[in-house]
Prior knowledge:
The complex is a heterodimer of chains A (about 500) and B (about 100).
Chain A: H1 16-25, H2 30-48, E1 51-54, H3 56-71, E2 83-87, H4 114-121, E3 125-130, H5 164-171, E4 177-182, H6 188-194, E5 197-200, E6 220-225, H7 228-238, E7 268-272, H8 282-297, E8 301-305, H9 313-328, H10 347-358, H11 361-374, H12 379-403, E9 406-410, H13 426-430, H14 437-442, E10 446-453, E11 459-466, H15 471-483
Parallel strand pairs in A: 2-3, 2-4, 7-8, 7-9
Antiparallel strand pairs in A: 1-3, 4-6, 5-6, 5-10, 9-11, 10-11
Helix pairs in contact in A: 2-3, 5-6, 7-15, 9-11, 9-12
Chain B: H1 6-15, H2 22-39, H3 74-77, E1 84-85, E2 88-89
Antiparallel strand pairs in B: 1-2
Amino acid sequence: xxxxxxxxxxxxxxxxxxxxxxxxxxxxxxxxxxxxxxxxxxxxxxxxxxxxxxxxxxxxxxxxxxxxxxxxxxxxxxxxxxxxxxxxxxxxxxxxxxxxxxxxxxxxxxxxxxxxxxxxxxxxxxxxxxxxxxxxxxxxxxxxxxxxxxxxxxxxxxxxxxxxxxxxxxxxxxxxxxxxxxxxxxxxxxxxxxxxxxxxxxxxxxxxxxxxxxxxxxxxxxxxxxxxxxxxxxxxxxxxxxxxxxxxxxxxxxxxxxxxxxxxxxxxxxxxxxxxxxxxxxxxxxxxxxxxxxxxxxxxxxxxxxxxxxxxxxxxxxxxxxxxxxxxxxxxxxxxxxxxxxxxxxxxxxxxxxxxxxxxxxxxxxxxxxxxxxxxxxxxxxxxxxxxxxxxxxxxxxxxxxxxxxxxxxxxxxxxxxxxxxxxxxxxxxxxxxxxxxxxxxxxxxxxxxxxxxxxxxxxxxxxxxxxxxxxxxxxxxxxxxxxxxxxxxxxxxx
Amino acid sequence: xxxxxxxxxxxxxxxxxxxxxxxxxxxxxxxxxxxxxxxxxxxxxxxxxxxxxxxxxxxxxxxxxxxxxxxxxxxxxxxxxxxxxxxxxxxxxxx
Lengths: 495, 95
């Protein structure tokens, strides 16, 4: 075993912008930073279980390249030497990509996702692949075929899902930032549960090429970071048009970091009353209302608005997303990649056994639901009806953005729940995403950031939404809030 | 009344190429029934004036020049195949 020396064990607690500046100024090396993060993983991940694989050797080689480039005086990328974790849904060339499923347990992609290439070009050091609900279907990380990730704030609680491993890794200092995906809240809800910043950009803002598909009209890649500035930096690095994803938006990517400090005096913040009703923990409501007052005191105007279709979003989503999933997951048939059953008498038998043995309970449930919603006789009543409701939801958001620049809501009705608490009741689990799902249906951007803690010491998340491509406005509001508060500086010490 | 019967569960499982145990059939019948009953909520909304929306951004066919570009080598494409024969994916007999 190689014993590392001179690794400053507190470097893991830096933000991306602090680390970037420190490396550029020569205060520490990318290698020292990486060793601090690897040390943190070794010390904590046995408890937190955020990672499915840690690519220490490749990471050390990447960090050494950054240090050599700096030694030669070469220009460094915007993420040079920054240790980043990837949800195990992103294809990584030569590195196992499981998507949290037995059916992809031994899948080693022969190519990289576009976002992986972009991170590498920016100089990032890829530390490893993080745990997730199988095929991103879940709100707790309990649906991983490889066991649950635990919340670093309370190891008996869930980190949220589906990007729970990424959120937990950022919160615990097991990386400096991470990527996740968000189909119905899978970046924002775990960010809220773990007390970090998470963003779902506008649908199409970030390329989905090389991202294992769940529900293609809803899936979007997003960053998870320790603060808002880091979110701006990471988003800029991954956003932009990609010829390999024809749904990616051909619109220039602004310098989000540069516009963080533009102030709030010209902004109107809407508070949609349907997001502040019964069924949400009073502590969560108080924290979110407190955040609205805080932003008002900084010069923003606030007004109440109504999004009357909100109570219908979960029902529409749980027809649309499973319908798309049932089609996307038809590809796992044991032919080209992934698990194949050991015993099959013929081709059809091979398909059926492979899928039945390879998929977990929640994935099967959603495939069943989606297949039913698309099947002859039920298509109009379920799938078509749900897509019409989707149109109404989108329209209502558009109308609210004629009066408001951003909307402020809770991320989830409660802080992190206990492991096992909802696993046997799918519908109750689905309700964890009641405030995040409408955002995916409408395709608009949304961000989650810490806005307080419960009496039990669990982080509470604030959600900020804006019109398509207005990520810069969201980040500006989030940054102003963050500057006036200390929530984001609190870090858990899992024990 | 149940929205979905055991027979329908078995029919859908067949369409989805899934084999379910007796336990799973019962469990999915109950859980899918709960979810579909909840989905009935959508009928409270008048969607007469709403076009079904499968996608949030207007999708236009993305054209490109018709020329060859680098792609995966055959061996790379087959590198994850559960079974292969020469340059082909190998599967159990079909008929």
